[in-house]
Amino acid sequence: MSGEDHGRHMSSEEFRANGKALVDWIADYWDRVENLPVLSRVAPGEVRAALPAHPPERGEPFSAMMGDVDRVILPGLTHWQSPNFFAYFPSNISAPSVLGELLCAGLGVQGMLWATSPACTELETHVLDWMVEMMGLPAHFRSDSSGGGVIQDTASSAALCALVAARERAMDGAASRIGTDARLTVYVSTQTHSSVEKAARIAGIGTDRVRKIEVDADHAMIADRLRESIDRDRGAGLIPAFVCATVGTTSSTAIDPLPQIGTLCRERGVWLHVDAALAGSAAVCPEFRTSLAGLDLADSYCFNPHKWLLTNSDCDCMFVKDKAALVRSLSILPEYLRNHATESGAVIDYRDWQVQLGRRFRALKLWFVIRHYGVEGLRAHIREHVAMAREFADRIRESEDFELAAPVTLSLVCFRHRAGDDINRRLLEALNATGRIYLTHTVLDDRHMLRLAIGQTHTRPRHVHAAWDLVRETARRVA
Amino acid sequence: MSGEDHGRHMSSEEFRANGKALVDWIADYWDRVENLPVLSRVAPGEVRAALPAHPPERGEPFSAMMGDVDRVILPGLTHWQSPNFFAYFPSNISAPSVLGELLCAGLGVQGMLWATSPACTELETHVLDWMVEMMGLPAHFRSDSSGGGVIQDTASSAALCALVAARERAMDGAASRIGTDARLTVYVSTQTHSSVEKAARIAGIGTDRVRKIEVDADHAMIADRLRESIDRDRGAGLIPAFVCATVGTTSSTAIDPLPQIGTLCRERGVWLHVDAALAGSAAVCPEFRTSLAGLDLADSYCFNPHKWLLTNSDCDCMFVKDKAALVRSLSILPEYLRNHATESGAVIDYRDWQVQLGRRFRALKLWFVIRHYGVEGLRAHIREHVAMAREFADRIRESEDFELAAPVTLSLVCFRHRAGDDINRRLLEALNATGRIYLTHTVLDDRHMLRLAIGQTHTRPRHVHAAWDLVRETARRVA
Asked: Tell me: the pLDDT tens digits for A6-62?
């Protein structure tokens, strides 16, 4: 940043001024985001049409970029940080997490090996051990056991890594060398997130070998059907290798029965991966841990603080019971990465725990979040969201026009107008067109329904009350 | 951020104050980083030992975290942003890029679908089309052709996605369904980055089916050997599916001959992926594009602005000639992601171009970098780094004790002391122990050598001169 740089780089003084202006811009954005239309109203191509067709030959001032952010980018955003955002699952953030992300960017270190920045690796291990304690997870997920934790970018990547490790184990360590045995099979439920089927495709297993197990009336995997499927495949000479159970499915936060599934996987020698991408954060509250009973039977587990624990995307916490199994399937050590620390065996090199080689210092933001809120603050946050969902569910139960479409296990309410699919479709479109809230839909038991997912950081009871009022009014208008 | 939040969240005022203090902290860090020991001196476990064993029950002030950053984290970092960092390949950042990352974090939007934030998708497409123009890439990588660009996290992920698309094509669209055909083969050189072999493992092809083609005296793949290997495999009933050529290998920035390799791949119907992770950024200068001649024969291509184009990690630009091939291999559309825009076919949904579902608004930082520097500023930056490398190489050539160990194609100088491997090993350790510079090593032709990679944003001639002086002095002491 010195004067030697001929003024081409942003100077130290300019960075300080621009950075502080941007901090204010972000604070202002958060202060006003609840008044912006939640769902972007631009048409396809509209954002691009407002941008110059060619890159600038000469540099531009920072104010020009921020002017375009206001003019072009903002209208093209769907505001995930609006307290009126109830779509999908949340991707909630918090001020301390944003500061952690900024520090990560400013330090610009690469944590591919312990040696390339020891603090990057050690803070990650440390915070994930904290997480085992905070969430009441099995002790064999701690780094001082056979297992340990790692931050992945997403639950999709965690599922892929778990599947690759499971394959290696099912093939007695031969998969890395000879590729996927065509007899391997994978088990999910009809409600499991599509990322697991995608992982099976990427891993060269193929969707023909992915069994979608039937669910019960609450949309949870039926363990007996899983047993039958596994045993049928074994009888046919196939090799059941991987089961993914979900705690909190995407459509309705259904909870698969881990004790039965886990016991079965142990008996049959099948790797059990548990995906609790959304719901896992709730385990910070002891009263919400019942859905994780049986997790000690799992080989791998993941949940996303970037969904519901106030931490910016990307941040998925993945835990494995046998870290050697994961590393064996993902490690290749070329000469240019050799170093004393790695060869001593005294350190973790997280590059061997993930698809990518390079990695950012993502533990910083999670550390900042845990320290800013404290465990009690995180608990309070989860409890408030669950309480708001329960209150909204009560309104649905009391209503003559609406009904609940699935059990409310945590913070997601699936509901529908009793007048049928067409009304529900039109209701959803009309609601989102108001700009005042944003909901998404799903289909369960062949019926169309609305999902109200509570979890944005600053959603308060008044936002949920207003959402309910708007739903009722709009339904009257549409019906 | 309102008063309703009971003070648990950081208030708007607190965020403004803490954010501005952090901006100053980062600017101060950049101002002083060149005086810190480049390679961290902590021992394994030292960082963790300085942290509390248990997570805090109650929240802590931001000043407590920043105090620990100074006390615990900083000594545990290897300073990738020091101008004296010459190890691996750079991971260079810039002030505008850090501001882009901050804005990305503050907006907190999810770009998995066009509909979930249109600007996130459209700015990415737009900037990647700019990149085609800036870098002189083939027109069929533009989004208005059969192809298009996408930002991946790393070149490792780009290689995996390219391989998955190649597999789908080689199996006439059946791979997603029936898994990897055990007859598929993959071709790299002995110098190709380990990420491609890792991708072949993950994809279930296995290392036994990865052919490592011999290189010439300049460490570039020998196209005739590739032809022989492909034809031998075809003759044996195997299915050659994927070739990865490298422009700028990790050990020595060797350049594989794209025209010959590309012509061969066309003739044999094999997918050609070109990995220019480091070297690709140099194409912003017309005089450095010769190594990309023949790129029009490639099916996919990637390079990392997060290595050498002043953009924070993670930012890999990947281009494909046939986007339908990529999407076909990676797309699964569950009900809860259905939406009008997707079904209209008028938009890009980047979730179908990558492993993960979720994605951050990474285009912002790349947009900020291009606009702040302008194309001419980026060119000047590359030219200065190359000039410094050439000057350092001249010093080596003039020296009696040292020799160049590989051609200097761009900004990496591979050199060795003439006195043999042992001296070179001890020299490297002694250099890095000074804390004044950080270099890494490689082995080429069974000989140990040092790599001086120039590319940190603020490296100036005086840093390279000081490095050369230190290398000479230290060699005299060690020899």
From this structure: 569 999 999 999 999 999 999 999 999 999 999 999 999 999 999 999 999 999 999
Cβ contacts of A368 on chain B, cutoff 8 Å: 62, 65
Q: Are A11 and B92 in contact (CB under 8 A)?
A: no
Query: What are the Cα distances from residue A290, in Å, to A255, A308, B132, B349, B362?
Result: 10, 18, 53, 37, 38
CB contact under 8 A, A20 and B18: no
In a 3-state reduction of DSSP, which class is residue B300? strand
pLDDT at B5 over 60: no
Q: Where are the domains of chain A?
A: 109-360, 369-478
Tokens linked to B138: 């083939």
Grade residue B335 by pLDDT with cuts at 50, 70 and 90.
confident
Rounded to the nearest angstrom, the minimum Cα separation between B264 and chain A is 26
The nearest alpha carbon in chain B to A154 belongs to B356
Give the best residue of B34, B101, B122, B133 to mutate against chain A (max A CB count within 10 A). Answer: B122
C-beta atoms of B64 and A371 within 8 A? yes
Residue A445 Ramachandran class (φ > 0 left, ψ -120 to 50 alpha, else beta): left
Instruction: Check B1 against A31: CB less than 8 A apart.
Output: yes
Dump pLDDT digits (tens) for A140-153.
999 999 999 999 99
CATH of B3-92, one of 1.20.1340.10, 3.30.70.1150, 1.10.150.80, 2.60.40.650: 1.20.1340.10
What does the pLDDT look like over B380-432, one tens digit per residue? 999 999 999 999 999 999 999 999 999 999 999 999 999 999 999 999 999 99
Tell me how close the Cα of A361 comes to any Cα of chain B, in angstroms. 10
Could you say which architecture CATH assigns to the domain A369-478? Alpha-Beta Complex (3.90)
Enter the CATH code of domain A109-360: 3.40.640.10
For residue A432, the chain B residues in CB contact (below 8 A) are none
Q: Which residue of B has its CA nearest to A201?
A: B176
CA of B231 to nearest chain A CA: how many angstroms apart?
21
* In the block, residue with structure tokens 């540099």: A59
pLDDT at residue A1, as a whole number: 39
Orientation angle between helical segments A155-170 and A323-330, nearest 10 degrees: 90
Residue in A closest to B184 by C-alpha? A179
Interchain CB contacts (distance < 8 Å): A and B: 521
Label residue B4 by pLDDT band (50, 70, 90).
low
Token pair recorded at residue A32: 């006003």
Q: Specify the pLDDT at position A7.
A: 60
Contacts of B131 in chain A (CB under 8 A): 55
Residue A397 confidence (pLDDT) above 80: yes
CB contact under 8 A, B134 and A72: no
Distances (CA, A) of A110 to A351, B198, B460: 10, 19, 22
CB contact under 8 A, A8 and B381: yes
Q: What separation in angstroms does the CA of A122 have from each of A146, A346, A384, B162, B205? A: 17, 12, 33, 33, 33
Asked if the interface predicted TM-score (ipTM) of this complex is over 0.95, the answer is yes
Give the per-residue pLDDT at A344: 83
User: Which residues in chain B touch residue A55, judged by CB atoms under 8 angstroms apart?
Assistant: 130-131, 133-134, 370, 374-375
Distance between CA atoms of residues A62 and B95, nearest Å: 11
What is the DSSP-derived secondary structure letter of residue A215?
A: B
